[in-house]
Amino acid sequence: MSKKIVIVSGGELEESFVLSELETLDSQFIIGVDKGMEFLYHHKILPSYIVGDFDSVDQKIGDYYRNETKVPIREFNPVKDASDTEIAIRLAMTLGASEIYILGATGGRIDHLWANVQTLTIPFKAGVDAVILDSQNKIRLIGGDTVIRREDAYGPYFSIFPLGQEIYSLSIEGAKYPLHDHQLTPYDSLCVSNQFEEDEVKITFGSGIVILMETRDKK
To answer: Which sign does the torsion angle of CA 136, 2, 5, 210 carry?
Structure first.
């Protein structure tokens, strides 16, 4: 049985988007991560778990969760070897997640964003579907043959980037800018902002991990 877990992290949280996604996703568990727990508190949404070092959280809100709720709290020293979002992802996997949706993983500092994108490797290698979502972007990792359908796409654009190594024998079919048997390097921007030409786009490559971003312009 599929188990859906949503992580509300401490990056940019667009109110209407996040509330809509929390309702639409209808997850079994919600994990609040540092500033993400403040968002949940202000919208009277009780998380299933709380994770973080509490270094950026209003003390009053932290005390509320500690003293007035029974929400399990995984509190860590700010000096630690993993980001709060990574710890939350590992917790979600421990809880048996088959699908992980991460909100609040973008916006603000780019170092946090890039760490969050790389952290998707942990569930990917364990065979767990994980995706970062905001109002303009859907970010996930793929390995091998992948089909994107226009009717299901997050937006009109998609970009792909190699994660950590060169990608050999990359082909893109059904796109405005097709490729055949291309060698994609980590510093290659060739595959940015491609678009649908047909109703389905097929991405194939020999080995490695590719970051797939489906994107749309801000409304």
So the answer is: negative
End-to-end CA distance of the chain: 36
The set of residues, in sequence order, having a beta carbon less than 8 Å from that of 28 and lying 6+ positions away, is 3, 4, 5, 48
**pLDDT at position 2:** 75
Domain parsing of the chain, residue ranges:
4-135, 142-215
- Identify the CA nearest to 121 among candidates 155, 79, 89: 89
Residue 88 and residue 55: Cα distance in Å, rounded? 16
Q: Which CATH number among 3.30.2060.10, 2.30.120.10, 2.70.98.70, 2.60.120.320 corresponds to the domain 142-215? A: 2.60.120.320
pTM > 0.85: yes
Neighbours of 126 (CB within 10 A): 12
| pLDDT, tens digit, 9 for 90 and up, residues 100-135 | 999 999 987 788 889 999 999 999 999 999 999 999
